[in-house]
């Protein structure tokens, strides 16, 4: 399980140092390869390679005649890039992906169970504050009987 939020800095070359607590888990459970891709204009998805393969297969199985799904496939699969962690636990994020979601120096690495999301740190703070301001009654209507 990948969880937690870490605020980390990209170096001048666009490398992200995976925090030690995640690095150890990733290396022991998944290996040294991660797949970065785009799904949204505000963050990247970062999958351990073994977790990416079933997602990739599901995307490839979508009906090819649907133009909306074809555009979605192009977005996610077309931007998917396999990255290797170096001996210092860093990955080089492709410049184009960094530009598309406006990642600069400080980024938030957000664990989401089977993957990470990678956000501009200031934007992540905004998203967090929006979530904290959710109306509990409105949220409950969407969650049904789900509770923590």
Could you characterize what this model shows?
The structure is a single chain. The chain has one domain: 3-Layer(aba) Sandwich (Chemotaxis protein chec). Helix content is 41%, strand content 26%. It is built from six helices and eight strands; from the N terminus they run E-E-H-E-E-H-H-E-E-H-E-E-H-H. The strands form two sheets. Strands 1-7-8-4-3-5 form a six-stranded antiparallel sheet. Strands 2-6 form a two-stranded antiparallel ribbon. Strand 7 (106-111) and strand 8 form a beta hairpin. The longest helix has 13 residues, at 67-79.
Concise summary:
The protein has helices at about 20-30, 50-60, 65-80, 95-100, 120-130, 135-145, and strands spanning about 5-10, 15, 35-40, 45-50, 80-85, 90, 105-110, 115-120. The protein is of the alpha+beta class. The chain has one domain: Transcriptional regulator MraZ domain (Chemotaxis protein chec).
Q: In terms of structural class, how would the helical and strand content be classed?
A: alpha+beta
How many helices? 6
| Shape descriptor | globular
Which CATH-level-2 architecture? Answer: 3-Layer(aba) Sandwich
Order of helical and strand elements = EEHEEHHEEHEEHH
User: From the structure provided, what is the oligomeric state, counting identical versus distinct chains?
Assistant: single chain
Calculate the mean pLDDT score and round it.
95
Strand line-up of the largest beta sheet? 1-7-8-4-3-5
> Helix fraction?
40-55%
């Amino acid at each position: 399980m990948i969880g937690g939020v870490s605020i980390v800095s990209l170096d001048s070359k666009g490398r992200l140092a995976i925090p030690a607590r995640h690095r150890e888990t990733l290396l022991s459970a998944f290996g040294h390869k991660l797949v970065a891709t785009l799904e949204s204009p505000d963050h990247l998805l970062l999958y351990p390679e073994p977790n990416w393969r079933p997602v990739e297969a599901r995307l490839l199985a979508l009906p090819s005649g649907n133009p909306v799904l074809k555009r979605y496939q192009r977005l996610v699969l077309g931007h998917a890039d396999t990255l290797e962690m170096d001996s210092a636990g860093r990955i080089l994020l492709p410049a184009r992906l960094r530009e598309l979601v406006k990642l600069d120096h400080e980024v938030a690495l957000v664990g989401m169970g089977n993957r990470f999301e990678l956000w501009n740190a200031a934007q992540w703070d905004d998203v967090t504050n929006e979530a904290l301001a959710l109306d509990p009654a409105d949220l409950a209507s969407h969650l049904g009987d789900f509770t923590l």
